[in-house]
Amino acid sequence: MSSYEPLTIDSAVTLVKKLGLFAESDAVSANEIGDGNLNYVFHIKGTEKSAIVKQALPYAKVVGESWPLTLERADIENRALRLQGTFAPDYTPKVYYSDKDLAITIMEDLSHLEIARTGLIGGEDYPLIAQHTGEFIARTLYGTSDFAMGPQEKKKLQHTFCNPELCDITEGLVFTDPFFDVETNDFEEGLRADVEKLWNDAELKLHAAQLKRQFLTAGDALLHGDLHTGSIFASSTETKVIDPEFAFYGPFGFDIAHFTANLFMNALSREESRRERLYEHIVTVWNVFTGEFTRLWNENNTEAFAKTEGYLTWLLADIFEQATGFMGLEMIRRTIGLAHVKDLDSIDDEKKRLDAKRHSLSIGAHFVKKRKAYTSADQLVAAVKEAVQ
User: Fold this and answer.
1) How many CB atoms lie within 10 A of CB 271?
2) Three-class SS state of 175
3) Would you say the pTM of this structure is higher than 0.85?
4) Which of 36, 95, 177, 285 has the most other CB atoms within 10 Å of its CB?
């Protein structure tokens, strides 16, 4: 198998046995479990072991073959997983095998865990998810930054994670399309007045443009690139971050912004009495990120100005400001853009669903425009609580 062809259940089983990951005599079961937009995902289970086989498709499943995509993203995902595993092994699935030509990564089976978004919608609480995710983000970002690697080594690594096609998706679906009347947008007719108000908000568009430029030009560290609650497997004791196929060098605040935005949207989908735990997670992830980033800064820093008074404080404040803006953009695009969140879409009562989506739009727009006014996660939570009263 030297050239690309899409896997089937049978050929996925043949492959894992050929590689010696499962014995030839093992009576394995397999099924296709992928529910994402870009890949096939096969769950292979034998008598004593199991594995996940993930294969990139040459097009976006959500649209079809009319939206072609490079298979290079599978190699980027594989290398990102391996690199993230060096900095945050407890929070990254193990990679067993990869094949660049076939766009395949075979990795640890995490089926004993649950996709965090699914669990949160069902009312599950993952007590350690914010702590673990904060540590993951701090360690992977700091470890791939100029501060840890030095500018020369970082530039060499940065060159290998050029990811233009996946970045183009983000640049369009997150930073551009929701602010214009384009076909990729998808929203309920009951939101039309709110959406048209957003499209006509010149101040909001200016701030969205500023944040887009930051996304386009900043190369602080290797990002996961799509770190929402659907990219996390969790239980009461474990957290694993998956699917870094959008990985590229970008701004420090992007990953934590998407994680917190998705927590806020889950909170908006709940009755008021059940939101507090989500708010606590949002504060915790920021506190953990800040503490872990500071620890790493003090332990391993190649920057001559590292001990200059006020430098780290300024940097962390800058990261928080940009993240507040990125968070707002994520809330907007997940409400009216091409790819929604089930948290909001699954609200059965139409009035409650539309109210939650209006809150997501208005809060998102506020955070984009007023991001400089916020300096702590507690302030963000207070603003959301006030907005939904």
Assistant:
1) 7
2) coil
3) yes
4) 285
Residue type, 165: E
Assign residue 97 the CATH number of its domain.
Answer: 3.30.200.20
How far apart are alpha carbons 309 and 124 in whole angstroms?
43
- Asked if residue 4 belongs to a domain, the reply is no
Which of 226, 227, 257, 252 has its CA nearest to residue 239?
227
Length, in residues, of the chain: 389
Q: Which DSSP string do the residues of 343-377 spell out, in sequence order? A: HHHT--SHHHHHHHHHHHHHHHHHHHHTGGG--SH
Using a 10 angstrom Cβ sphere, with 0-12 exposed, 13-18 middle and 19 or more buried, the burial of residue 233 is buried
Share of the chain above pLDDT 70, in %: 98
Q: Which range marks the domain in which residue 339 is found? A: 114-387
324 within 8 A of 374, measured Cβ to Cβ: yes
pLDDT (tens digit, 9 = 90+) per residue, 88-133? 999 999 999 999 999 999 999 999 999 999 999 999 999 999 999 9
Place of tokens 């809060």: 363
Neighbours of 63 (CB within 10 A): 13
- Considering the domain architecture, whether residues 39 and 143 belong to the same structural domain is answered as no
CB of 51 within 8 A of CB of 96?
A: yes
Q: Residue 59's beta-bridge partner residues? A: 68
CB 88 within 8 A of CB 140: yes
**Co-location of 87 and 220 in the same domain:** no
- Lowest-pLDDT range, 5-9, 157-161, 352-356? 5-9
C-alpha to C-alpha distance for 77 and 279, rounded to whole angstroms: 31
Q: Which residues pair with 55 in a beta bridge?
A: 40, 104
pLDDT in the model for residue 61: 64
| Angle, CA 81 vertex, CA 236 and CA 213 arms, to 5° | 100
